[in-house]
Amino acid sequence: MFPPRGLPAVGDLPCHLGHARIGFGALHRRIVEPWRSTAYSRSTCRTSEDALSTVFPDLSSLSPPPSERWRVALRHGVPGGSNRLFHGDNLAALAWLAEHEPASFQCVYIDPPYNRGTKHAHYADARSRSAWLEFMARRLVLLRRLLRASGSLFVQLDDNELDYMKVVLDELFGTECFIGRVTVRARSPSAFSTVNRGVFKASEYLLWYARSRADFRYHPQRVPRPPDPAYTRWIENPQDPAEQWQLGRVRDAFIRERGPLTSRFRRSDPAYQQFVVDHAQHVFRLAPISDRKAGAGTVAAKVRSRQPPASVLVHHRSGGLEPVYILNGQQICRYDRNVTVIDGVHTASRPLTNIWTDIPWEGIAGEGGARFKQGKKPEKLIRRVLSLTTKPGDAVLDAFGGSGTTAAVAHKMGRAWVLLEHGPQARTIAEPRLRRVVDGLDDTGVSTVEDWHGGGGYAVLTPEAESPA
Q1: Which residues contact 1 (CB under 8 A, 6 or more apart)?
Q2: Residue 9: inside a domain
Q3: Of the four, 127, 177, 374, 460, which is 20 to 30 A from 121 by CA?
Q4: Quick check: is 76 in a domain?
C-alpha cells in the first residue's frame, strides 16, 4: 500500500512545484486517491471511463463545442487516405479523435515538452510541475481511449519529469500495463557540454505502456553486434547427420579458404568476422550442461556422450523441443542462431534490450530537410519504436508533432499516421517535410533502408473556429 510502512504520510512530504512549495498530498489526492475508491482492477489493466472521470471531473468538457469543426485546409498526393496533420490545439484534436475514432491506433508515440524551465524558438518549456502534470494527464486520458486493445504508448522524456510521469501513467494505465523503461543514449560529451557539475547527462528515456496486457502485441527485434569470439569450433559437413560431423577449428577453415598469407590474423579482423557470419551454419562453441537446470534426459545424454569422445550425440526431446547436440559432455551451440537479416544484410546480432546506444543522434539536423533545434529525434529511433509495435497498415499517432519525424517515418514504413501540432512549425517545418516524403524527394533518415521512393498523400486540417489555448 501507499505509503510504505515506516515512512511519513504523503501529505507530510513537501514538494517544490515550480516556485511554490506545496504538500505533495495535493497531487496525491487529485490523482491517486480517487483510484483507490473505484472498481479499478489492476489485474486486467482495463481502467473504466468512470474511474478516469473521477480523476478528472471535467473530462466531459474536453470535447470541442458543437460549433467547432475541423476543415481540410490542404491536400497533397493521393487523395482519400487517412494520413492527417491537425494544425491546432492538440487537446481539442484529441477530443475530436476520441469521439469519432476511438481505439483506432496501434501505437501512440509522444515527445512532449520536457519542462526544463527554458523557452525555445518553437514552444515554451517552463511550467510549474503541477501545471505540467495536469497538462499531460488531460491529454493522456484521451490518448488511452485512442489506442487499440493490442496497442502501445511511448512517452519520451529526460530525467526532469520522468518519475512523476510514471506515477501518472501507472494510475491511468495500471502498473501491470507497464512494459518497460528504455534508456536511450541521446548525446555524447564534448568539451563544450561537460562544464556543469556532476556526471554528463547523456540519456533520455521511453516509458512504454500497453493498452491491455492481455491483448498486447509486439514484434521482438534484434540488433547488430560484433561476432562472438567464443565461437571457435568448426563443422566441416553440417548438412550430414550429426553423428558423421567432421569437427575442427574456425581458424583453420579461414586460413584454408584465404590462403597461407592469412595465417597471421586476429579475430577482430573484419575479414575474419565476415567469414564467421557468412559460414555461421559451420561455426559453434561448447557450453556446459547444468545438472540442476537441464532435464533428466539431457543430463543422462550428457553422461553417455562421454563414453565415445569426439563423437556427437543427439538427444531428441519430446514436446516439440529442438534436439540437443552434445559433444563429450558439453552442448554444441551453433552460431547461425545469432545471425539474422537486419536491413537486408546477414548480420551477427543479439536480442534488443532496454538500453539503446546504437542509434546515432549526431548528424540528424538535416534529416527530412527539417531544421528543428533542441527537439528533433532520429528517424531510426522512431523506426525502432514502430518496428516493435506495428505492422504495415497499422495507424500511428503523435500528439506533439514537432518537425514531423514520426509521420515521416510512419509514411516510409507503410503505416497510416495522424500528427497533431499547435505551433507554426506544423506548416513551416512538418508539412514541407511530409511533402518531400510523398514526392520522393527525401533520401535522408530511413529512406534507404525502407527503400522509399515516394507515394501516398495526406491532408492538413485546421479548426474552423480557434480553440482556446
Answers
A1: none
A2: no
A3: 460
A4: yes
